[in-house]
Design goal:
This protein has 765 residues and is α/β, with parallel strands linked by helices. 29% of the residues lie in helices and 18% in strands. α2 crosses α15, α7 runs antiparallel to α17 and α8 packs parallel to α10 (243-250). The chain is globular. Bound molecules: beta-D-glucopyranose. The site of beta-D-glucopyranose has 7 residues, from loops.
């Protein structure tokens, strides 16, 4: 591709917006009810509350129904007015039962019911990382709207999602819950999900409050080890990790969850700078802050406070409004009445927190409608339209990484037999992925089931799990489904025979769902158990092999290169149906990697937006033993067609701080079928008061094009998108500088142009 800068030659109408700006433009008001009306109602109620009732309102209890004593304990707290919120209840009947208890308390204030609706409730959507891989914020918004509708139907008002933590180290298990490594993609996905959950305003019918989490920096835990401390430079914090949170707050998120870990030495849930200076004062956040589970109690664990009362005081004064108690009853906010009586906590501080929680209840209409109709809830959960959304979201999330000799799509007409192999090929629990609690496994379409249904009786479909899925060495905090267990050596031999007798082998390999998610970090990217051996044995047959990777990590196939390789993440309830549609060519894959895929784990963390340094001629030779370039770059993904991106045009050679640069390219589908391409725009500030990354994604658009068709794809790049936090002067700057712009279909895009920004001239100290 050649560089072509055609200044002022744009005749087309630019309708493009950057993804973030586009989503933000659609952002609705924070709420439908006026602040004054809500406040008046809440003040009247607060005037009647005792200190104990106030502390109760801002205390949230776990209801672990698997442990009857725990359910009893939570019920007792609610009945005594010592709980304003509960989490984990998931049926309309149970939620109504708890609401009845709350209604019988002295003031009869109903509960705000929370739940981890991370990627679907009853109908399971692809995991959030997969939705990010669609590079289609609209699909994430639609998926979360369905999740909200199901959750609200059973009486849930609030989800602890989206997770907007930036994940740059896939050893960290929670990478699966986020949008990957990039703050622009992450912000677009954050906004889309907030809008999907909340709808046009807080309290909209069929919607729930969104709670972006975990504020802030959790994705950078040291060594990728979940819960461990985070040591982030201010530059990384402002320019990378805080960005999606800011976008989510600007989109009107009603809640924020404060993180577990220490951020640069100060625990996030007792961090006044983070929760008050940044979130409230600088960003103007109007919702309420909840701690992560027991994170207020943990201020003492961190050695940040001496005891429970001090932890309560510090959390509240730092800016926490509600304590999510530590599972199995370790709460600290119960100390607040005494702290207020002793004058150690100003009552006004307690009142601020209570007011924010009650305001959320008023806005959500909890007082008007504390109970839900159970029959109606059942109908909503059974809505077939939800399954369609799940299937489409999955289809759009797959990333095709290899497709030698156009093995895919499989030619349905000439296909006689398929061997479906692998421990994840027919596992419903793994297909839906982690953080799912209210699904019906019998409804989940596995890859095996999806292929069988699609291929019909004329094609012979054989199945072998191939090998066992090993157990975790350390126990998960979630229930561990029984893994597939077989006699590995015998089963490998059987799978090989099966492959030999089939036209094609489809291997579904990867990690079980409990190997990703919370408390699921990993020090290896190898295929667990003997899957590598299985893959090698099947490939040795010489038969065409398609590998589908079910994981949220860039797994290391150790140089084995199957003819076709596609990342299918954890694709959800309709995962198998979506896989079948893509493998058989009904839909062309169009997803792109939301992270850089390293060659091996020794390169981690590896991300494209790094800084430039010494010895640039040997940028990929930082290790003496192998290249340090990625195996697949950020933003990479193939399709069944091919595309050309040309004719880069910029609207002007230079722009002022108040102006918007218009950038356009011509996208042409040069292949023989309709398919999608994601056009990605990166910029580089060539010099600044602080060193800038080699390139940063600023905008993208997923476009669907017919074979042979050409479309102009336009982006608006407001100068404000070029501002960044400069470590040299310790504030956001928009500086006079030269910029390169690159447009293409992954982070190595070569089509380039240039422009100048007339911003401020920064004098370094
Ligand atoms: C997780 C949160 C989650 C909460 C409630 C915590 O352990 O870190 O992300 O929302 O549990 O389930």
């Amino acid at each position: 591709m050649h560089a072509s800068l055609k200044i002022n030659k744009l005749r087309r109408l630019f309708v493009g917006l950057t993804a973030v700006a586009a989503a933000a433009a659609a952002t609705s008001s924070f709420a439908q009810l006026s602040d004054d009306a809500v406040r008046a109602r809440v003040d009247a109620l607060m005037a009647r509350m005792t200190l104990e009732e106030k502390a109760g309102q801002i205390t949230q209890h776990f209801v672990f129904q698997e442990v009857p004593k725990e359910e009893e304990r939570a019920a007792k707290e609610v009945a005594a007015g010592r709980g304003g919120s509960v989490l984990l209840l998931k049926t309309a009947a149970d939620i109504n039962r708890f609401q009845q208890m709350a209604l019988k308390t002295r003031l009869g204030i109903p509960l705000l019911v929370g739940f981890d609706v991370i990627h679907g409730f009853h109908t399971v959507m692809p995991v959030p990382l997969a939705m990010a891989a669609s590079w289609d914020p609209a699909v994430a918004q639609e998926a979360q709207a369905v999740a909200a509708r199901e959750a609200r139907a059973v009486g849930i008002h609030w989800t602890f999602a989206p997770n907007v933590d930036i994940g740059r180290d896939a050893r960290w298990g929670r990478t699966v819950e986020g949008a990957g490594e990039d703050p622009t993609l992450g912000s677009a996905m954050a906004v889309a999900q907030v809008q999907g959950f909340q709808g046009p305003y807080i309290g909209a019918p069929g919607r729930v409050i969104a709670g972006p989490k975990h504020f802030a920096g959790y994705g950078a835990s040291i060594g990728g080890r979940d819960y461990d401390e985070v040591d982030l430079s201010d530059s990384q914090l402002w320019n990378v990790h805080l960005k999606p949170f800011k976008a989510a707050v600007d989109a009107g998120a009603g809640n924020i969850m404060s993180a577990y870990m220490g951020l640069n030495g100060v625990p996030a849930s007792g961090n006044h700078w983070l929760l008050t200076e940044v979130l409230r004062k600088s960003w103007g956040f109007k919702g309420f802050v909840v701690t992560d589970a027991g994170a207020a109690f943990d201020l003492t664990t961190h050695g940040y406070t001496r005891d429970k009362p001090e932890a309560a005081r510090q959390a509240l004064l730092a800016g926490v409004d509600m304590e999510m108690t530590k599972p199995f009853d370790s709460q600290v906010f119960a100390n607040l009445p005494e702290l207020v009586s002793k004058g150690e906590v100003p009552v006004a501080k307690l009142d601020d927190a209570v007011r924010r929680v009650l305001e959320a209840k008023v806005r959500m209409g909890v007082f008007e409608k504390p109970l839900v109709d159970e029959a109606e809830a059942a109908k909503v959960l059974a809505d077939p339209a939800h399954r369609d959304v799940a299937r489409r979201a999955a289809e759009r999330s797959f990333v095709l990484l290899r497709n030698e000799k156009q093995l895919l799509p499989l030619k349905g007409s000439s296909l006689k037999s398929v061997a479906v192999i692998g421990p994840l090929a027919d596992s419903a629990v793994d297909t839906v992925g982690p953080w799912i609690f209210a699904q019906n496994d019998a409804e989940t379409v596995t890859v095996l089931a999806g292929l069988k249904a699609k291929l019909g009786a004329k094609v012979k479909v054989d199945y072998s799990p191939g090998v066992s899925m090993p157990k975790r060495a350390n126990k998960s905090i979630f229930p561990e489904p029984k893994p597939v267990t077989v006699d590995d050596s015998k089963e490998i031999a059987r799978a090989v025979q099966m492959a030999k007798q089939s036209d094609v082998a489809v291997l579904v390999l990867g990690e079980a769902q409990i190997m990703s998610g919370e408390n699921a970090s990993r020090s290896s990217f190898d295929l667990p158990g003997r899957q590598q051996e299985l893959l090698a044995a099947v490939m040795a047959t010489g038969k065409p092999v398609v590998v589908l990777l079910m994981s949220a990590r860039p797994l290391d196939l150790k140089g084995l290169a199957p003819q076709a390789l596609m990342q299918i993440w954890y694709p959800g309830t309709q995962g198998g149906a979506a896989v079948a549609n893509v493998l058989l060519g009904e839909v062309s894959p169009g997803g792109k990697l939301p992270f850089t895929w390293p060659r091996n784990i020794g390169q981690v963390p590896l991300h494209y937006a790094h800084l430039q340094s010494h010895f640039t001629h040997a940028m990929t030779e930082r290790y003496w033993n192998e290249p340090n370039s990625p195996l697949y770059p950020f933003g990479f993904g193939l399709s069944y067609s091919s595309f050309e991106i040309q004719d880069l045009m910029l609207s002007q050679p230079s722009l002022k701080a108040s102006e918007t640069l218009k950038v356009s390219v011509k996208l042409r589908n040069t292949g023989a079928r309709k398919a999608d391409e994601v056009v990605q725009l990166y910029v580089r500030q060539k010099a600044g008061s602080s060193a800038r990354p080699v390139r940063e994604l600023k905008a993208f658009r997923r476009v669907s094009l017919d074979a042979g068709a050409t479309q102009t794809v336009s982006f608006d790049l407001p100068a404000s998108e070029l501002q960044y936090w400069s470590a040299a002067v310790r504030r956001f700057v928009l500086e006079t500088a030269d910029f390169d712009v690159f447009v293409g279909n992954d982070a190595t895009a070569k089509l380039a142009g240039k422009f100048q920004l007339e911003g401020e001239a920064i004098a370094r100290p």
